[in-house]
Amino acid sequence: MSRAATVLGAPVERREARDKAAGRARYAAEHTPSGCAYGWPVPATVARGRVAALHTDEVLELPGVVAVLTHENAPRLGEPDDPTLRLLQDDRVPHRGWYIALVVADSLENARAAATALRVDYETEEHDVRLTAGHPGLYTPEEANGGFPAVRERGDFEGAYEAADVRVDASYGITALHNHPMEPHAATAHWHDGRLTVWDSSQGSGSLRDALAQLFGLDRKQVTAVSEHVGGGFGSKGTPRPPVVLAAMAARHTGRPVKVSLPRRQMPAVVGHRAPTLHHVRLGSGADGRITALAHEVVTQTSRVKEFVEQAAVPARVMYASPGSRTAHRVAALDVPTPSWMRAPGETPGMYALECAMDELALAAGLDPVELRLRNEPETEPDSGLPFSSRHLGECLRLGQELFGWRHRATAPGVTREGDLLLGTGVAASTYPVLVAPSSATVHAGRDGSRLIRVNATDIGTGARTVLAQIAAEALDVPLESVSVEIGSSDLPQAPLAGGSSGTASWGWAVHKASSQLAERLAVLGGELPPEGVTVRADTRAETGAEPAHARHAFGAVFCEAQVDTVTGEVAVRRMLGVYAAGRILNARTARSQLIGGMTMGIGMALMEGSTMDERFGDYAECDLAMYHVPVCADVHSIDARWIDEDDPHLNPMGSKGIGEIGIVGTAAAVANAVRHATGVRLRDLPLTPDKVLESLQGPAATGGRGR
Fold this sequence. Notes:
Elements lengths: L3 H4 L9 H6 L14 E7 L5 E6 L1 H5 L4 E5 L22 E2 L5 E7 L2 H10 L2 E5 L18 E2 L3 E2 L1 E4 L2 H7 L2 E9 L11 E7 L2 E6 L4 H12 L6 E4 L15 H13 L3 E4 L5 H4 L6 E9 L5 E13 L20 E11 L12 H19 L3 H7 L17 H12 L11 E3 L2 E13 L6 E6 L5 E4 L9 H13 L6 E4 L16 H23 L8 E6 L1 H5 L7 E13 L5 E11 L6 H20 L5 E2 L4 E2 L18 E5 L23 H13 L5 E2 L3 H9 L10
Parallel strand pairs: 1-14, 10-29, 12-13, 16-17, 21-22, 25-28
Antiparallel strand pairs: 1-5, 2-4, 2-6, 3-5, 7-8, 9-17, 10-15, 11-12, 11-14, 15-16, 18-19, 19-24, 20-21, 20-23, 24-25, 26-27
């Protein structure tokens, strides 16, 4: 048996784990060049208007203050592709929290004190921050995030819906959600000899380098962006954010290195978030539960700075067979921070609404929720008509049934009690597309038997270093310990960012190709290497640029048992099981970590996470981890992730699909469906906080009403 048979797929320990535990891994805020100054951003305190005056003269007299950058003296920037980076270029305030100044001082403490002391005069304007299903400013965009058409229609939905034997018409709501990675956004910038070097907490140093070159009028070769270790991002670090631009501006203005680390309370306004979404889902089926009509219509919001439309109706286009289908997005531009990517954008809120509606259809049709999903499996992808490269959702549902003990659940809701606790179980399906982008990599063979992989991948906590080494070890048929990996710098071979669950597939494809070509070269050399060794470079532009002949998706099924306290209204997840079909699993240890991490995040979305817009001030109230609650170990009693062996030859040389995001998809619906089964009451607006649960148990819905 070759080494490859035992390396790829094995639960190998993360290579950087010991460095992180020992504090040797250095993050963006931990790079401190000699003479480094510290910047503290000043956010606007009005919801809309303009800056009339900044009293910087008072601040410049405070201890340690080096400079105060405002729209009056900040370096002029080139026109960015992303308008959220057009910082300190004019006096406008498009939303509360927009940066209007940066105070630079000799210490973090002095910068913070001076920023707090800066007096600002505003001219305010009326603002609009409230999203409603009937907002007068709603419009239909050309496309949603990801380039998806905003509206898709197939067949005659209205006619099929009216003729259906069983119908569901339900509305669901999801509040705004915010990315809160463990490491807040931070950057350090240093200009030297006409070059700019930045250390940034970013999911992609290549795109960061390109953005900075455009903003500061530089050639890309004049910029080095380093993101060696990143403490999570969940999408918020997928594009360049204000800290790195402010740090680079301040470093150019002052002539010394500058570090900008965001306090967590400022993050909700400037680093993106999942926009609130309002969902209207209509399902029609025959008496046998086979869907004949499916509509998913979404209302969401964007900012006036930049259009970003959460593609929440897109999953309904591909998930279930339906002759009549309508999926649509409408959006309102409000005076709010700009939404952006958050783990599984589109699929996460969209599948919550769709999978809750499927649960409601199962109840109306008198079918088991698992059986309903199995009856509506499509033969080809409904939206494109393409055959699936692989679709083993049915296997995930059946295996989950067996492992979870689903068949022993009570058929009727609201009948299983333990004292004051009501118990229930729920299920939901999950899906996420297989995405891949062109990448390049080099692999070097040394005469001492060492192998060095160089690729500008980013490890945001997923174990990228480890898995890339495993891919190379398999292709080269060498011991894993002989392979070292360099990642996280724009000076390395060009590669895409870590996002869309595409990182491993994209980088790994290039690493596999380079390693395979090196193995062929070494075979020709017969083991006689030149003193400098042998290096091979490969890129995957040709392979990834081809139009796919198959619809490529990962699938899964999430099963949940929840308890509802009838006295306090608290909901707790007793146990949760996710079963996934995600191609070949390349590292069992890191894969399980990613899947249960996503599921845990889905529990947070279902039960506690939410950002409340204060309409008077145009501000999100939950702006730190004391108010924005995320699950901790005590909230997750028992959680497990399994996967089936899936051989899909239509993906990449490793046969892998992305697993970073599918874990969160469907999880919130599984929890909500379990709560419905426990109480007999359908709650449709997330999160399911104790006040909502108690009200539902005590109100008319508890005696047979529709719920809310």
